[in-house]
Amino acid sequence: MNNTNRIKEIKHIKKMKINPLKTFGNPFDDVKISSNNFGRFADDTKAKLIHNNVNNAYTPLIDALNVKMIPFRAELSQIDTGINIQVGKTATVDGFMVEFKGYMSENYVFIAAALGGEKTEAFGELYPNGKSEYTALTKTKAPTIMARLKTVGDKYATELGVNISAKLQDFQTQWSQLRQNQLDVKSAVKTNRAERSVARREVEIELIKIMHFIGNKYPGDVEQCMVYFDFNLLYAKHKHKKDPNDANQ
Q1: Average pLDDT for residues 196-221, to the nearest whole number?
Q2: Could you tell me if residue 116 is left (phi over 0), alpha (psi between -120 and 50 degrees) or otherwise beta?
């Protein structure tokens, strides 16, 4: 069956009074369900199975779910650790930006004097758009600015003196290293997020099996089935650690 026909079939199914996708599909395959909330739901379901495990009736279900939860929990831990590291790398980059802006602002007068004043060609090469270009620097513009400083710092090394010249040239090296470290961690976090869906899906399948098992035990008895499942946990809102992926660019 080609994709066009498959899409038509799915649209037809969704219009049916009894929706097979909801009955036999995966209710956890929803972008609105975060992995943390999904994990809480899985833990809560397991706890309820254990609490109601009369004559070990649910032991096979509990054991199977435990096996699938191990890699899923490991991946969530990796994501959390990755974000912690990324927060640290972002703080390091941000700290560099603060130091850089301060240096370029505080040494504006000294650099101007060393280059013969604000009207000279040399000063214009370093501050073509005035001091604000440095004090309001963004991460997007940083690579261009750092390259300029390295070039000008080397070109006018004699006029600027050893200390200022070396400092201007070293900014590019510092920036490149710090920013690359931050981007490497960011990339690793994204990779982990893509890969974690495999482990999560394994847990989803086990929970679907548990839902069908309970449904088979109490056919048509929604109230009794709901003793084992708190679906509100899947969409609960919680305060969480900020992901710096969307930090100022």
Answers
A1: 90
A2: left
Question: What's the token pair of residue 48?
Answer: 């309820």
Tens of pLDDT, residue by residue over 82-135, are: 444 444 445 577 888 888 888 888 888 888 899 899 889 988 888 888 888 888
Confidence of residue 247 (pLDDT cuts 50, 70, 90): very low
Distances (CA, A) of 15 to 21, 31, 234: 11, 22, 25
| Closest by CA position to 203, among listed 23, 34, 65, 27 | 65
Measured distance CA(97)–CA(103) in Å, rounded: 10
- CA separation, residue 219 to residues 22, 71, 142, 223, 232 (Å): 16, 32, 64, 11, 22
Distance separating alpha carbons of residues 135 and 145, to the nearest angstrom: 12
Tell me if 230 sits within 8 A of 211, measured CB to CB: no
Contact 192, 200 (CB under 8 A): no
CA distance 143 to 220: 64
